[in-house]
Amino acid sequence: MVQTLQNFINGEFVTPAGTAVLDIVNPTNGEVVAKSPVSVQADVDAAMTAAKNAFAGWKHVTPGQRQLMLLKLADAVEANSDELVEAQHRNTGQVRSLIAAEEVAAGADQLRFFAGAARLLEGKSAGEYLEGHTSYVRREPIGVVAQVAPWNYPFLMAVWKIGPALAAGNTVVLKPSDTTPESTLVLARLAGEILPAGVLNVVLGTGETGALMVEHKVPGLVSITGSVRAGIAVASGAAKGLKRAHLELGGKAPAIVFKDADIKKSAAAIAEFAFFNAGQDCTAITRVLVEDSVHDDVVAAMVEHTKTLRTGSQNDEDNYFGPLNNVNHFNAVTSVVEHLPANCKIETGGHRAGEKGYFFEPTIVTGAKQTDDVVQKETFGPVITVQKFSTEAEAIELANDVDYALASSVWTTDHGTAMRVSRDLDFGAVWINTHILLTAEMPHGGFKQSGYGKDLSMYGVEDYTRIKHVMSALDA
């Protein structure tokens, strides 16, 4: 049965004012599973009003009380894991066990971190910095924040958005991706049973809906996880109202493999980190840079292991990764592979996988030049390139020579090499002999066209606060 979705505003599901609807398609088989509204100005106004009214009370809720509510939400997430997994699987086709472990369980853990963080915000100590006057710093919530989440990890990215915002005392209007809204609506329902009405609102729609949120007069901060194109649009829209922007955008992560690395072990790990979630991850390995003396051995080992990473089955537990998210993205990834320059060689993959849905084989490309689009532009799919380097300096130069600067990794058994290269890599995250792993206590965010602002950690919570200086005369 195809269900009709609704917005979640002021603590309840409501029928939107907009009459247009979108088909929500299961990418494993192309079948329509839901109808989602395209929210219009009146819907956005209603959500912003609810969030603004709720903030008047929410900002006075003590950190300890916010902590307890976020802890209850984490418990509710775990208790409703099966429902969340099925809701998301319908929209993404991701392997159910991975949704359960990597998003629902991880999301509950991260909510618990943000719950604790609510009680740990700090500022400069009070003191007499001017004779006869005491100064202190207040770290305050910004107010209403508008947030746009992506389709690659719908539930987890919703947690990354609302967790720090709510912990810091803000209220939220969140728009999930127009192709993957269902798990976010389950999260909203669970939150509605715990949080005061209006603290968390979810508005469904397209990019145009998101633009209405960004340019609305109410939010004091706008946050997006998405493409560079979308990030520039959000930053531009926010600038019109002098709003703060928080941008987590694309990536083109290199993995630098030195000749002293454990070749077989490293190659297998790199293949798994590259093709996890069909490469639909801004931190996923997309470029493998290999010292020339071991290039062929690394390629052979990667190809061998990649052939064990299955996809394309309608029984999702037979797959290492699921389909690409939608037909447009499938066509875009297919076009990248079909239009590779003549200097490139496909070592494995390169074609659709399975007979139904938007599955694509894990694909390894050698021979690419640094200036080729497949090296410079984000594919966001299961396609990686392997290039050679001769010296450490050349490896760093090739790694840094892209517009993105989110994630990277170094593969070596030499401590000095690891330390020097991690220092000189111009990326927000550097892993050594591993990749893609995250923990709530550590910040996640990039430089250059990968955006600015941090997710996770106390740095992420602080991004959702503002600083106020208060000075009092001692003799008044």
Task: Please explain how this structure is put together.
The chain is of the alpha/beta class and 476 residues long. It has 15 helices and 23 strands. The strands form 6 sheets. It has a 7-stranded mixed beta sheet with strand order 15-16-17-14-13-19-20, with helices on both faces. A 6-stranded mixed beta sheet has the order 10-9-8-11-12-22, sandwiched between helices. Helix 2 packs antiparallel against helix 4, helix 3 crosses helix 4 and helix 3 (81-92) runs antiparallel to helix 6. 51% of the residues are buried. The model has no long low-confidence stretch (mean pLDDT 97).
Q: Secondary-structure map with pairings?
A:
Layout: E1 3-4, E2 7-9, E3 12-14, E4 21-26, E5 31-37, H1 41-58, H2 63-79, H3 81-92, H4 96-117, E6 127-130, E7 133-141, E8 144-148, H5 154-167, E9 171-175, H6 182-192, E10 200-202, H7 207-214, E11 221-225, H8 228-240, E12 244-248, E13 253-257, H9 263-275, E14 285-291, H10 295-306, H11 327-338, E15 345-348, E16 363-366, H12 373-376, E17 383-389, H13 392-400, E18 404-405, E19 407-411, H14 415-424, E20 429-432, E21 447-448, E22 451-452, H15 457-462, E23 465-473
Helix pairs in contact: 2-4, 3-4, 3-6, 4-5, 7-8, 9-10
List its salient traits.
476 residues; alpha/beta; six-stranded mixed sheet; 15 helices; 23% strand
